[in-house]
Amino acid sequence: MPAVPVSSFAERFGGHIDLTPAEEEALARLSQRERALRRGAVLVREKDPSADLFIVASGLLMSYVILDDGSRQILRFLFPGDLIGASVLAYGRASEGVASLTDSVVCPFERSEIGRLAVEHPRLSALILLVQQIEHVAMTDRLAGLGRTSAKSRVAAVLLDVRNRQRRIDLAAEDSFVLGLTQEEIGDATGLTAVHVNRMLRQLEEEGLIARENGRVRILNDQRLARGANYVDRRDGFDLGWLPAAR
Amino acid sequence: MPAVPVSSFAERFGGHIDLTPAEEEALARLSQRERALRRGAVLVREKDPSADLFIVASGLLMSYVILDDGSRQILRFLFPGDLIGASVLAYGRASEGVASLTDSVVCPFERSEIGRLAVEHPRLSALILLVQQIEHVAMTDRLAGLGRTSAKSRVAAVLLDVRNRQRRIDLAAEDSFVLGLTQEEIGDATGLTAVHVNRMLRQLEEEGLIARENGRVRILNDQRLARGANYVDRRDGFDLGWLPAAR
DNA sequence: CGTTCTGTTGATCGAACTCAACTAGTGTGG
DNA sequence: CCACACTAGTTGAGTTCGATCAACAGAACG
Predict the structure, then answer these.
(1) Dihedrals φ, ψ of B35, to 5°?
(2) Where are the alpha helices (DSSP H) in A17-83?
(3) Per-residue pLDDT tens for B66-95?
(4) Residue A14's pLDDT band (boundaries 50, 70, 90)?
(5) Could you give the 3-state DSSP secondary structure of residue A146?
(6) B223-230 long-range contacts, Cβ below 8 Å, gap at least 24?
(7) CA B74/CA B61 separation, integer angstroms
(8) Is the CB of A212 under 7 A from strand D?
(9) What integer pLDDT is reported at residue B3 of this predicted model?
(10) A117 φ, ψ to 5°?
(11) Which residues in chain B have their CB less than 8 angstroms from residue A140's CB?
């Protein structure tokens, strides 16, 4: 078995629930294989027929769609522990493209593993449903941001999101962080042009909310930035009381 | 047992999979109770602690969030057979508000039923995961629309979406349909103002893509409307091959 | 029968886009 | 090793899409 990645899928449930050894092992089995990706590599092409899902072991990836006019909408950024490509469960083909933003490692597994999990470990199956639900709520936040907040807010929300997720993975993270995204990528995530993202970053800087030094970003005023961005940190507040007993 | 609603939760799987009698019954149990709602009634208040989920039996509802500045983003419209409130599985509280747009009927059940389903009917549990995945893909389409398409496209997409979903429920539907949404509601779904929605509808009409007669809408040129709206109908193409065997 | 809700239209404003030019860093191949 | 290309970021000028503000008509409603 390979070394357990820094932030594994199983770790998602760490503080919340005690997994049985059998459950631990079943989850670990999903991370058995590893596949390394170079920065820029495309892991899943949109509409590709494929039956594989992936768990991110390390690195940063994104999922996106390309519209008819060639423009790209980034749907989410993928951090270690995230599940990639669950939509093949419904359609047997990818509805989102996935590409690597940094060198990264993913663990591929077949979608039939999900069915097996449902039969052998009902509680894990319920947990996966729960994890998908967390992702759904995050999606909801992004949707509301796109529909109803200003360009500046949306850019700020991306900054906060990346910072917070990096922190969760690397608790020793400093207060300044490497964004790891180009301004064009931020634009494609927020529905803006790269040019306008640049101006918004400048404004945030001029207002004393953030500081930038080549590539690195430092958030100077967390509260004010989060308020302006309509940002909700949903790290806490999980309630797993309904889960069936282990067996 | 109450009369099975026109479009039940179980019916979702109709053409795709043969449910065992036990599975059918387990699904029917989720629709045992019924609750009627008047037009305008709020079923779930945002952030309400609650442990109930709902299945729509009849009518049209919406889920939404209200932002700090008071603006509303409608996240999705809820049609018969849709599952409401799955986010309580993760947080034990509602992350989205839900209100009724027409008189409607929903079937409430406790979230522990989901855990029970996972244990007693693993295949159904996998199916629910799959249904959620379908919803996730739809959400993805809306996100890309908000981020990357014009006001006119987004309005057209709502029209097509409502029409198509009504058709799926009532196969005898005519080619003109009752929209059932105010222009303000369309605006809150598409991230536009009611005023601008009005102008976009007018433009669509002037271009000969739709016709309107008090409340009713008729789509005159499906192809052209769908192309302009970047609309993808995802009715078909399901692939359930990975599901575990019934038991 | 006023009041409220919904739809409609015009005039004006402003946020974000487009186009364009320029800088700095990073390869990279001749 | 240097010339060239390419990427990412920056800034300015002008344009446009959609918002805002305002006024009004008709329907719905208590």
Answers:
(1) -140, 125
(2) 21-30
(3) 999 999 999 999 999 999 999 999 999 999
(4) low
(5) helix
(6) B225/B156, B225/B159, B225/B160, B226/B156, B226/B160, B227/A68, B228/B152, B228/B153, B228/B156, B229/B145, B229/B149, B229/B153, B229/B154, B229/B156, B229/B157, B229/B160, B230/A67, B230/A68, B230/B144, B230/B145, B230/B149, B230/B153, B230/B157
(7) 10
(8) yes
(9) 39
(10) -60, -40
(11) 65, 75, 87, 95-96, 139
Please name the residues in contact with A138: beta carbons below 8 A apart, sequence gap of 6 or more. A76, A234
Enter the DSSP assignment of A127: H
DSSP B72-124: EEEEEEE-TT-EE-TTHHHHSB-SSEEEESSSEEEEEEETHHHHHHHHH-HHH
DSSP B119-169: HH-HHHHHHHHHHHHHHHHHHHHHHHHHHHS-HHHHHHHHHHHHHHHHHHH
Q: By the 8 A CB rule, do A134 and A234 touch?
A: yes
Task: Give the integer Cα–Cα distance in Å for B169 and B176.
Answer: 15
Q: Are strands A104-110 and A52-58 parallel, antiparallel or unpaired?
A: antiparallel
d(CA B217, CA B205): 10
CB contact under 8 A, A91 and B243: no
Ranking A125-129, A135-139, A213-217, B102-106 by mean pLDDT, the lowest is: A213-217
Cα–Cα distance, B2 to B16 (Å, whole number): 25
Q: Read off the tokens for B213.
A: 């007669």
Confidence (pLDDT) at B4:
40
| B126 → closest Cβ in A51, A115, A149 | A115
**Contacts A144 to B, Cβ<8 Å:** 65, 67, 73, 75
Model confidence band, residue A15 (pLDDT cutoffs 50, 70, 90): low
Q: What is the mean pLDDT of chain A?
A: 91
Alpha carbons B82 and A137: distance in angstroms, whole number: 17
Q: Report the distance separating Cα B225 and Cα B246, nearest Å.
A: 42
Q: How far is CA B116 from the centre of its chain?
A: 25
Which neighbouring-strand residues pair with A45? none
Quick one: pLDDT band at residue B246, thresholds 50, 70, 90?
Answer: confident
Q: Which residues of chain B have a CB within 8 Å of the CB of A156? A: none
Chain D nucleotides with an atom closer than 7 Å to a protein C-beta:
7-12, 17-22
